[in-house]
């Protein structure tokens, strides 16, 4: 790729504009980004590429021509001043990535000794978790909040919920996946789930007496309470008093 003339004087800040970056791989164009000339390669550009192409930042090497751009470089440091477009070549370095894939394939709990880059690598973590749900404990925080990763573990053993992020324990499908194995998984459910109508309806179909954990508004919801009562009349003790003033409810309940 042509590198253009010598860098020359910097443009005043007021004249710096967003530029178009065409990211090329060995097989041709991979994606197009818009970025300010002041953007740092590591903080902005590589993260944007990871978001679009799912190539971890740790595996990315970016080149303008034959020159590699460092993570602490800004675009204006390395590209011609005032350039509206530029083509950068992306090389994915998978040596460490491949090594850890092989390691966790043999011993998934070796993820505990892996460097941060490996514990934040989705491919490595999913490979480990598929082999052993307990590997989720050693995954990076970002991946403990990844629904696919967490569900891979929880579907093996509900106890994996203990290692899931708070945001995942607030996801109905994640918690219900655990509860379908063992009702004790309910103890990992985030508090706000007990105010989620669909979640509570699904739960009382498993154990009607769990109506007692539902939020006040749902214990006053005729359909939710009757759903529980159809499975166990004893659940009526947890219904809101206001429901008993509804003749239709009383008729259906008794």
Plain-language structure description:
With 254 residues, this protein is α+β, with helices and mostly antiparallel strands. Helix content is 37%, strand content 13%. The chain contains 12 helices and 5 strands. It has helices spanning 41-53, 75-78, 95-106, 116-119, 122-131, 141-144, 147-154, 172-179, 197-206, 216-219, 222-231, 247-253; strands at residues 18-25, 28-36, 60-64, 67-68, 85-92. Strands 2-1-5-3-4 form a 5-stranded mixed beta sheet, covered by helices on one side. Strand 3 and strand 4 form a beta hairpin. Helix 8 packs parallel to helix 9. It starts with 17 loop residues before the first strand and ends with a helix. The model is unreliable at 1-15 (pLDDT under 50).
Distance, first to last CA? 80 Å
Helix count from the secondary structure assignment? 12
Please give the oligomerization state of what you see.
single chain
Instruction: Give Rg in angstroms.
Output: 27 Å
Kindly estimate the percentage of residues that lie in beta strands according to DSSP.
5-15%
* Arrangement of strands in the largest sheet: 2-1-5-3-4
Unreliable spans are: 1-15
Mean pLDDT: 88
What structural class should be given to the helix and strand makeup? Answer: alpha+beta
What is the β-strand count? 5
Helix content: 25-40%
């Amino acid at each position: 790729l042509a590198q253009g003339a010598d860098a020359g004087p910097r443009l005043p800040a007021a004249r710096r504009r967003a530029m178009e970056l065409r990211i090329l791989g060995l097989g041709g164009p991979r994606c197009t980004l818009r970025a300010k000339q002041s953007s740092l390669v590591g903080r902005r550009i590589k993260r944007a590429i990871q978001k679009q192409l799912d190539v971890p930042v740790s595996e990315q090497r970016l080149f303008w021509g034959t020159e590699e751009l460092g993570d602490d470089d800004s675009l204006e440091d390395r590209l011609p001043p005032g350039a509206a477009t530029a083509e950068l070549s992306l090389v994915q370095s998978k040596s460490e990535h491949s090594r850890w894939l092989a390691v966790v394939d043999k011993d998934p709990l070796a993820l505990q000794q892996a460097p941060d880059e490996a514990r934040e690598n989705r491919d490595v973590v999913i490979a480990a978790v598929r082999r052993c749900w307990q590997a989720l404990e050693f995954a990076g925080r970002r991946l403990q909040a990844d629904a696919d990763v967490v569900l891979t573990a929880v579907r093996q053993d509900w106890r994996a919920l203990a290692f899931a992020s708070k945001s995942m324990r607030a996801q109905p499908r994640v918690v219900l996946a655990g509860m379908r194995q063992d009702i004790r998984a309910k103890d990992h459910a985030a508090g706000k789930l007990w105010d989620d109508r669909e979640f509570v309806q699904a739960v009382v179909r498993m154990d009607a007496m769990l109506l007692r954990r539902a939020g006040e508004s749902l214990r006053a919801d005729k359909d939710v309470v009757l759903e529980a009562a159809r499975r166990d009349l004893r659940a009526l003790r947890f219904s809101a008093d206001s429901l008993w003033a509804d003749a239709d409810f009383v008729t259906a309940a008794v």
